Fold this sequence. Notes:
By secondary structure, the protein is mostly beta strands. 2% of the residues lie in helices and 40% in strands. The chain has helices spanning 133-136, 141-144, and strands spanning 5-10, 13-20, 23-30, 36-42, 47-54, 58-64, 72-74, 95-101, 110-115, 119-122, 130-131, 154-160, 168-173, 176-180, 188-189, 210-215, 223-227, 230-234, 242-243, 254-259, 267-271, 287-290, 298-300, 318-321, 324-328, 334-337, 345-348, 354-359. The mean pLDDT is 96.
Amino acid sequence: xxxxxxxxxxxxxxxxxxxxxxxxxxxxxxxxxxxxxxxxxxxxxxxxxxxxxxxxxxxxxxxxxxxxxxxxxxxxxxxxxxxxxxxxxxxxxxxxxxxxxxxxxxxxxxxxxxxxxxxxxxxxxxxxxxxxxxxxxxxxxxxxxxxxxxxxxxxxxxxxxxxxxxxxxxxxxxxxxxxxxxxxxxxxxxxxxxxxxxxxxxxxxxxxxxxxxxxxxxxxxxxxxxxxxxxxxxxxxxxxxxxxxxxxxxxxxxxxxxxxxxxxxxxxxxxxxxxxxxxxxxxxxxxxxxxxxxxxxxxxxxxxxxxxxxxxxxxxxxxxxxxxxxxxxxxxxxxxxxxxxxxxxxxxxxxxxxxxxxxx
Length: 360
């Protein structure tokens, strides 16, 4: 199926771009004025999901079966009354950070990753959700998970193995990568080789800060992560992570990551200066691509602003569909490439802050 729509979640609504005759134009805007924090397209059914994070009304979840023509409000997941934070206070859902189906052999089953660090499971296409208690009660959560720029840890990536739906990974800021092989009954950390330079022991088992986790479609044992402390890749399902940060630490810090499913050595990142200075490196916007698993990186700048650019790109604001890539920035700029990143065009300079993008 051709991906001819681009869904852009912004701080003031969902903007939908439509591709016609090779050009991308705004088709319509939805949820105007509402902060759209996450967009998910269920590849099994082509159903759309949108989450809204509002300072006053809290988290809202909406579902469309007809590509955005009509929407249904979905009851929000709730933490059980006995679910407690490290402080001893009752846990409440603050934000949805990740959304995934549970496998092609599990129709109607969905997963949500949330802040403050809980994962929810639905068996009825989102009508109800249950907290995955085994993960919430993991012995490392209370003492070794912590917030990264947020008050609480959050699950922002869910990667289901297409070969075995009982086998999946999650990434938590800050805790690291965790794996289950029995559908969530048992969990174990998979962080060997990662570096947590901000901790007294940088080689801890739990306490890492992956910014985004992706698996290669043609070989799911190959995974990539853009990390607080570099760019890392595994070829053995997380048994060991290799640091593939670029020469002279460029690229290094950043949030956004895209990978090529059919070429497992190919990926893209969008660098930022550092955690302390979240702006484009040298105030020059750049996408970096590797075609050899990080041995070398190429800077792709054609069509991107190279002076006085303060933009950065959040973890869910970079998307890929075959040779087409798109990303939105914190200053409301939206860029698109139809040649694997070699050159870029501007789709808009006038959006609110971009929180997420997805092709549909």
